[in-house]
Batch of 3 targets.
Target 1
Amino acid sequence: MVTPFTKDGEVDYKQAAELAVKLVDDGCDGLVVTGTTGETSTLTDEENLGMFRAVKEAVGGRAAIIAGTGTNDTAHSVHLSQEAAKLGVDGLLLVTPYYNKPSQAGVRAHFEAIASATELPVMLYDIPGRSSIQIAPETMIGLASHPNIVAVKDAKADFAAATRVMAETDLLFYSGTTD
């Protein structure tokens, strides 16, 4: 879901809560809060956590709240994920560590560290068009052995890779891009 702002550029938590209620009333059974569309990388930690809190209070129990807590900094992502867990979100969306362009071993270590930091289910977010790095099929297949890593949000439209990952793992697979 989008992150609404006031005319002064402040996050509008009241409007976020109202939007969450509208989305759930219209049939959504889960909401990604501060994902790409929610402008996560432009928000402060306080604003991200405020969004998780506002949406959880508005529709928690009626819809799954998936918190976008992935950053390019593993320790920072762990911190945001742990704070989101304390607020009672239902899962985490973790983007690839953008800008740094780690090796696939580095990508795997990044995701495993974050996934091990809470008990929450994790959805990996593979969006190389924005992050400049992809999660290779071999890396996804390896990450599928982590008990908290349960899903992939794929925005690269590599159907051969997606088919391979789906055939070789039990990961839930969501695919789509606006490109």
Target 2
Amino acid sequence: MIAELEKINIKTFKIPMRSCFDIRAAFLLKKICEKYSVDIVHTHFLRENCISILSKILGNKIKIINTRHMLTENSTLVGFINRISSVYVNRFIAVSNAVKEQLVREGISSSKISMIYNGVNLKYWNGKCEPYIRKELKIDGNDFVVTNIARFTEEKGHSFLFDSIKTFNKKNEERRDRRNIKFLLAGDGDLLEHFKNITLKEDTYSNVILTGYRKDIKSILDESDLYVSPSKSEAFGISIIEALACGKPVIATDTGGQAEILKGNKCGVLVNYGDIDSFCNAMMKFIYDYSFYNTCKLYTVKTVEEHFSDMDSSLNTYKIYEKCIGK
């Protein structure tokens, strides 16, 4: 991010932070803010938020805005810190209603919380690029590609996805009109090796491709047919709106913010986490019901245009900035 900012001539500073209570970092932040007349510090994680608050206690005349991206029930200690620190935070931004509800449960007044969905640049995600993914990964042009892009961690639901793939493959083998399906899973993480071992040991996963970490997410989505998000917990689900912006229908678990993306829209299907049969049936519906697939596809980009554009997200955030400094 620093490199991208410097490309457009935005001055950047690196502040080393050893802990949430790093006095040296707090003083350095205060010094920078005073030198450059900074009005607002916008934080995104606990450590940065704590240091900004500490800097404010030390005399930094700033407004603090904190965006919450996580949907995890915090420990009693973290909850206590959040309640105390909320006195010094001027505004909280939640990336979904689910996150807003969690903040309220932590004791933060709803009057201090704004909900702003994340947005994506539709021009970028809906633009075309030269295809090469299928050739690189030896995927036939006629194969139906089901994709998931996520870190291999417990909350991302890969265990549920693998159980569903096993059941799906058995059902698909029984069809006379069966299509060749590939499951393309991109991402790294602590559990990646575990799932690599599973695919090597069990023949039922012979159509699963694990790519590891990839930067070329748009290219992967462009050459996919269906996106799935089997998360156990999800604050929002940015990969879902990236897939929608690429024109791909979505199956997602009815949890957290990703449920808010799909509910009331016709661009995908929600299933309960752990319901293998429902997940399999949803995949079958998209793969074999061409009319249903094409109808959902019509609403993918439209959903992003109407609810999840980066311009709307930026404008709503800017309005909060203006309100905080009294403009």
Target 3
Amino acid sequence: MTFPSALGAAAEAVAGRLDSALGTLPDSRVRTAMAHALVGGKGLRGFLVLESCALHGVPPATALTAAAAIEAMHAYSLVHDDLPAMDDDDLRRGRPTVHVAFDE
């Protein structure tokens, strides 16, 4: 498997795990904003978690949960970075930032 295909497969698996986690939350504006923040990106951090876990014999389901958590934390850091008090960015990954799309 090539690196781009392995990265894509990992990103897809992590996105699926994140979607499952969001699906357990009640419908709300916060849930919608969280889903908005998680769209896009290469998923490199999640991939690195999955590969590291595989090297150390961590069960795949556990590794996937850890990878999803790392991707969620990264998404949060980008949301925070985009806020008006920080960089005040209007776009992230070609889409309106969370504070623009959801009125701060």
